[in-house]
């Protein structure tokens, strides 16, 4: 299947960023364990939480840019990509919700 619009960074970058955010969460849990069951809390969120937040928030303007540019040109294909981006974003969010204290 030839998908030239998927070669655009505004199409694939949010998906890659969501996967990186999920990998960050799973890596943190693999290194430090599931923190839901530990009593002491850290005073600061830590670098991993900040990087996760940045990865998730920076996707919003990229997705908006993609939607503005591609919805008028190729509506059906753009909606498919937007659905993929939304699913990846929700999956990354679900990992945090699952491992939340």
Walk me through what this model shows.
With 101 residues, the chain is mainly alpha-helical. It has one domain. The chain is 72% helix and 0% strand. The chain contains three helices and no strands. The protein has helices spanning 9-32, 47-70, 75-99. It is elongated and about 50 Å long. The mean pLDDT is 85.
Shape, please? Answer: elongated
Termini separation (Å)? Answer: 43 Å
**Count of DSSP E strands?**
0
- Rg measurement, Å: 16 Å
Succession of helices and strands: HHH
What is the overall number of helices?
3
Runs in which pLDDT lies below 50 for 5 or more consecutive residues are none
Instruction: Count structural domains.
Output: 1
Q: What oligomeric state is this?
A: single chain
Q: Structural class of the secondary structure composition?
A: mainly alpha
The average pLDDT is 85
Helix fraction bin: over 70%
Strand content: under 5%
Task: Give the helices and strands, then pairings.
Blueprint: H1 9-32, H2 47-70, H3 75-99
Helix pairs in contact: 1-2, 1-3, 2-3
Task: Give a short overview.
By secondary structure, this protein is an all-alpha fold. It is 72% helix and 0% strand. The N and C termini lie far apart (43 Å).
Tag the structure with descriptive keywords.
101 residues, mainly alpha, single chain
């Amino acid at each position: 299947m030839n998908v030239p619009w998927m070669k655009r960074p505004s199409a694939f970058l949010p998906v890659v960023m969501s996967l990186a955010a999920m990998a960050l969460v799973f890596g943190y849990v693999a290194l430090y364990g599931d923190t839901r069951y530990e009593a002491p809390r850290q005073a600061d969120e830590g670098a991993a939480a900040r990087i996760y937040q940045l990865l998730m928030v920076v996707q919003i303007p990229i997705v908006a840019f993609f939607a503005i540019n591609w919805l008028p040109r190729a509506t059906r294909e753009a909606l498919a990509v937007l659905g993929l981006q939304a699913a990846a974003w929700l999956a990354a969010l679900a990992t945090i919700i699952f491992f939340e204290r």
